[in-house]
Every structure is written in structure tokens, then in C-alpha cells.
């Protein structure tokens, strides 16, 4: 370490001498910093790893917006409100990552159920089952069980379960996709939409096992994500940040480790719309995004910023039966 | 790494088209890092926030001339560095009188600058000056900090030149006495840790 670097290092440590101060003052006064010193400071700049910081700089951003608006000429009122609105929209965004759905149509499961909890309107709802098990049912999801409840439910869609403990009787979640979750008393999330052929389980705590085609295939530990690949009938296990998979209960959509194609499907569920994504070259692009109270349009704008895409929103069409089709969004590569 | 550059470029292109969502995203990507970098050199939360503010204001103002094919991170570092050093120099200028004060009253000629804890020195000088009664302190600071001539101080405060001179002389004597009476005022200045390292 040369003298310059020693003085600079002392300054950055926060405990420094009068000599350090005066020397750094001299270095900073020079019109052009020498390359070695510049590289040294750049190493401080680069050593920053995106560690979590609880410090929010939102107020600094607000000040920026104020200053920018104040200096902008010919600023219309409309533009100004755009600013404020877009800020709210972008406030909870993080960037990029992903895996993707196969988009395969699955057969309807053969159910003999008489009690159905269904969310078709794009909302999520809380449910409680006869044995005291409670949870949340996600958008466009259906939970069914037979009358005379025997701790067996069928799920098409997404649900979070807080299962009551019963040593005598295991709790079973079956999916139209195939695999079943066998539970002993635990919190976990299942995401299995039949029409997408997807099956994902995240275990928050407790222990569960997954059965497929009658055989025990996976035992999960808390914090694990099990993803089922319908083409190979194999499971992939990984440790994840459980919260990322549970945010939907609070109405958030957390996209992390997701491809753009997969994200489009999830965004579709979230807003209860059909998204048609024609993005052959971009489908495996990584997405990292947290949506909270953004409108659909705001979300699409964010995607447009991140990826070279265009979108078009089609209004719902009146169907023959007098009902309306879902709103449709068409996403195209630029 | 390449991904990151790619995102930066994409955001910059959008910012050049006045897209404010992209601007906010860029802010979210780099503001904390910038803040922490500034804190390393300035050790003051408000100043570090000012750096973040200045740098991003600059990015917005210069958005049309930022070349998106060069590394945005290097560009950011360069503006950040320049802002930080300007702040450092400005603060240093404002503190210069404290350094002169310390050399006059607290640090003897034997003492090596390497042994003086800079921030401790600033605190010590402040606490001694704060011992002065209000009027005398005001006159003393106008003289030392603002560098006004005695006559200028007299004019500004509507006092006689002689009164100003007297007050400055009393202040000086008072400080010398205080330091003599209370050796911790000067002894604490030493940067004990340093030699051991």
C-alpha cells in the first residue's frame, strides 16, 4: 500500500489523523487524480455487495422529483401527475432472474367432491376446513373436498395451508397434475395449476412428503422448494427464501428466479387476465420483480422498460353465453 | 455482470426518452451503494444523502449526453468521486479555522500530525469555543471562522473597534487558561491507536 492509499484507507475507516486529513485534502485538490489512487478508490466502489440495507432513500428521490419538476420548462400538469403516479408504481421494484412452465393442458382430475371453494374472479380468499386447517386460496384456484371431510383435498391452483396436527390422520393435497402432498401438521404452499401442468410446493415449517403415482418420492425440509417437471416426472429440490413464495397471501406478486415466460403466466393469474406472450427470443430472460399495488398497465410498462417488448390490451369480448371473456394482453417482441 | 450492464443500458436508453420509471429503477439500483460509498469518505448521513441527490440530479440533467455503450458504473463512479471530493474540500475549508485554532492552542510543535485524531480535534475545538460567553464567541468566530478584520466586525455588530479588540484578547487569554487548567482538553487529542498499528 502506498502513502496515498494508506491515508485514504484511514479516512474510510472513520478514525484518522490530522495528517491523513490534510494528505487526502491535497490528493482531492489535484485536478487530475493519479491512476493508482483512482483505481484504489474504485475498488471501494466495487467492493460494495448488494447487502440489504434498511436505510430508505425514498425521501431523497422525492426531493429529486421536486427539483426536476421545478426546473422543467413548459411542464404540463398532466406530466406532473404522471411523475407522482409512476413513482408510486415503481417504488417496490427490484430487478431480474428464472424456470418456466410448460403451458401444457392437463386433463381434468376425476373428482367426486361435493364442497368446492373457488376463486375465479382474480381474488384470493381465506378458508378454514372442518378439521381446523386454515389457509389462503390464490387467484383462479379451486379447492375441493368430499363431504364428510377425510383430510383429503384437491387443488387446482395455488394455496397456502396451515394444517392442524393429527397423528392418526395425515392431510393430503392432491393435484390434477399428479403428485400429492402428504402432511403431518405444518405450513406450506402449493402451486399447481392444471392447465399449466405446474406443481410447486414450498415448505415453511414442519415436514411433508410428496407422493407421485402412489410412491413416496420426496421428503421436504423447511425452506425447501420442490418443483415437478411433468415431462420427466422428476422433482427438483432447492432451498429458497420462503417469503418469496408466500407474498401472494398479502396480495403481492414476487417474481424471483423466474423467466419472462413464466412471469407472464404469473402476472396473468395475478391480474386475472389472459396474457399471450409472443416472445420466442426472450422467454428465458430473467425477471426479478415485486408487484404490490401496481395497476396492470403500470406493470406492463415496467416490463416494457426491462425488456424490448410491446404490449397491447384487448378489451373483454362478449361471449355467446352473455358473459364476458377475460381481458387479454398481447405481448410482442420489439 | 454482463446482465447488469445490459440492464443499465436498457434503463439509460429509456431515461433518454424521459421515461421516469426507468429513472426510478436506476435510482433503486444504485442509490444505496452510492450512499454507502459517500459515507465512507464523509461520515455524515446528510452529506451522503446530498451526494446521492446531486449525482442523480446530474444524471437526469445530462441524460441526453450519457453514452449508453460505455460502462454506466464507471460513469457513476466518476461523478460520485467528483461530488465527494468537492464536498470533502468544502468541508475541509470550513474547518480550516479549527485546525489553526488547534495548532495555536492545543498542539505543541513536537507533536506529529500523524498523532492527532482529526475528528477528536474538531470536537475539542468546538467544545472550547462553546465555553465562551455568547457575545464574545460571536466576535471570536467572526474573526477566526469568517476571517473578518477587527474593524469589519465592529462595523457589522455596531461596536467600537476597541471593544472588539478587548473581547478577542480576553477570549484568547481565557482559552489559554482553560487549556492549562484542564490538561485533558489537549491530551485527549492524541491519536493513541496509531503508533501501535
Chain pair forming the biggest interface: A-B, 50 and 51 residues
What is the 3D form of chain A?
extended
- In CATH, the topology of the largest domain in chain A is named Jelly Rolls
As residue ranges, the low-confidence spans of chain B are 193-197
- Proportion of helical residues of chain B: over 70%
Distinct helical segment count of chain A: 8
Overall geometry of chain B: elongated
Mean pLDDT of chain A: 76
Write out key terms for the chains shown.
heterodimer; A: Jelly Rolls; 4 domains; 13-stranded mixed β-sheet; three-stranded mixed β-sheet; 8 helices; 27% helix; extended; B: 197 residues; mainly alpha; Rna Polymerase Sigma Factor, Chain: A; Arc Repressor Mutant, subunit A; 2 domains; 10 helices; 0% strand; elongated; disordered C terminus
Describe what you observe in this structure.
The complex is a heterodimer of chains A (334) and B (197). Chain A is of the alpha+beta class. In chain A, 27% of the residues lie in helices and 31% in strands. Chain A has 4 domains: 3-46, no CATH class; 58-90; 115-246, Jelly Rolls (Sandwich); 252-333, Phage tail protein beta-alpha-beta fold. Chain A has 8 helices and 18 strands. In chain A, the strands form 3 sheets. In chain A, strands 1, 2, 3, 4, 5, 6, 7, 8, 9, 10, 11, 12 and 13 form a 13-stranded mixed beta sheet that branches. Chain A has a 3-stranded mixed beta sheet with strand order 15-18-17, covered by helices on one side. In chain A, helix 1 (3-13) crosses helix 2 (18-29). Chain A is extended and about 85 Å long. Chain B folds into 2 domains: 2-93, RNA polymerase sigma factor, region 2, helix turn helix motif (Rna Polymerase Sigma Factor, Chain: A); 106-196, Winged helix-like DNA-binding domain superfamily/Winged helix DNA-binding domain (Arc Repressor Mutant, subunit A, Orthogonal Bundle). Chain B is built from 10 helices and no strands. In chain B, helix 6 packs across helix 8 (161-181). The longest helix of chain B is centred in the middle third of the chain and has 34 residues, at 72-105. The radius of gyration of chain B is 24 Å and the shape is elongated. Chains A and B meet through helix 2, helix 3, helix 4, helix 5 and helix 8 of A and helix 1, helix 2, helix 3, helix 4 and helix 5 of B.
Amino acid at each position: 500500500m502506498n502513502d496515498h492509499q494508506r491515508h485514504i484507507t484511514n479516512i474510510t475507516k472513520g478514525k484518522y489523523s490530522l495528517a491523513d486529513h490534510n494528505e487526502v485534502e491535497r490528493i482531492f485538490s489535484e485536478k487530475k487524480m493519479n491512476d493508482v489512487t483512482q483505481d484504489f478508490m474504485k475498488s471501494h466502489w466495487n467492493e460494495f455487495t448488494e447487502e440489504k440495507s434498511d436505510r430508505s432513500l425514498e425521501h431523497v428521490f422525492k426531493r429529486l422529483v421536486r427539483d426536476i419538476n421545478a426546473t422543467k420548462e413548459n411542464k404540463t400538469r398532466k406530466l406532473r401527475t404522471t411523475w407522482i403516479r409512476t413513482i408510486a408504481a415503481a417504488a417496490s421494484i427490484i430487478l431480474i432472474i428464472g424456470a418456466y412452465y410448460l403451458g401444457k393442458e392437463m386433463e381434468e382430475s376425476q373428482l367426486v367432491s361435493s364442497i368446492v371453494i373457488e376463486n375465479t374472479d382474480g381474488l384470493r380468499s381465506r378458508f378454514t376446513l372442518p378439521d381446523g386447517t386454515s389457509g389462503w386460496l390464490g387467484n383462479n384456484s379451486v379447492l375441493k373436498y368430499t363431504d364428510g371431510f377425510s383430510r383429503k383435498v384437491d387443488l387446482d391452483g395455488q394455496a397456502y395451508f396451515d394444517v392442524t396436527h393429527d397423528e392418526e390422520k395425515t392431510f393430503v393435497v392432491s393435484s390434477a397434475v399428479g403428485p400429492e402432498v402428504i402432511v403431518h401438521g405444518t405450513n406450506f404452499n402449493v402451486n399447481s395449476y392444471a392447465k399449466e401442468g405446474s406443481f410447486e410446493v414450498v415448505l415453511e415449517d414442519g415436514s411433508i412428503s410428496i407422493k407421485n403415482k402412489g410412491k413416496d418420492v420426496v421428503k421436504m425440509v423447511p425452506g425447501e422448494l420442490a418443483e415437478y417437471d411433468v415431462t420427466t416426472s422428476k422433482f427438483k429440490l432447492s432451498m429458497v427464501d420462503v417469503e418469496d413464495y408466500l407474498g401472494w397471501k398479502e396480495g403481492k406478486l414476487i417474481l424471483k428466479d423466474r423467466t419472462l415466460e413464466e412471469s407472464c403466466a404469473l402476472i396473468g393469474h395475478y391480474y386475472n387476465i389472459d396474457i399471450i406472450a409472443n416472445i420466442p427470443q426472450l422467454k428465458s430472460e430473467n425477471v426479478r420483480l415485486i408487484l404490490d399495488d401496481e395497476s396492470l398497465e403500470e406493470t406492463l410498462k415496467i416490463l416494457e422498460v426491462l425488456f424490448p417488448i410491446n404490449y397491447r390490451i384487448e378489451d373483454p369480448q362478449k361471449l355467446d353465453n352473455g358473459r364476458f371473456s377475460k381481458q387479454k394482453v398481447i405481448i410482442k417482441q420489439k | 455482470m454482463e446482465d447488469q450492464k445490459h440492464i443499465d443500458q436498457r434503463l439509460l436508453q429509456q431515461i433518454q426518452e424521459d421515461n421516469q420509471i426507468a429513472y426510478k429503477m436506476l435510482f433503486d439500483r444504485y442509490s444505496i451503494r452510492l450512499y454507502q460509498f459517500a459515507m465512507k469518505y464523509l461520515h455524515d448521513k446528510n452529506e451522503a444523502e446530498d451526494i446521492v441527490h446531486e449525482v442523480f440530479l446530474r444524471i437526469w440533467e445530462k441524460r441526453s449526453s450519457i453514452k449508453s455503450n460505455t460502462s454506466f458504473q464507471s460513469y457513476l463512479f466518476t461523478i460520485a468521486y467528483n461530488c465527494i471530493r468537492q464536498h470533502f474540500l468544502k468541508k475541509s475549508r470550513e474547518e480550516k479555522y479549527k485546525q489553526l485554532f488547534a495548532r495555536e492552542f492545543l498542539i505543541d510543535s513536537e507533536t506529529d500530525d500523524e498523532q492527532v485524531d482529526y475528528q477528536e480535534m474538531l470536537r475539542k475545538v468546538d467544545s472550547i469555543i462553546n465555553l465562551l460567553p455568547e457575545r464574545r464567541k460571536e466576535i471570536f468566530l467572526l474573526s477566526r471562522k469568517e476571517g473578518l478584520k477587527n474593524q469589519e466586525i465592529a462595523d457589522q455588530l455596531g461596536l467600537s473597534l476597541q471593544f472588539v479588540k478587548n473581547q478577542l484578547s480576553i477570549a484568547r487569554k481565557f482559552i489559554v487558561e482553560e487549556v492549562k487548567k484542564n490538561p485533558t482538553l489537549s491530551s485527549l487529542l492524541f491519536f493513541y491507536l496509531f503508533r501501535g498499528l
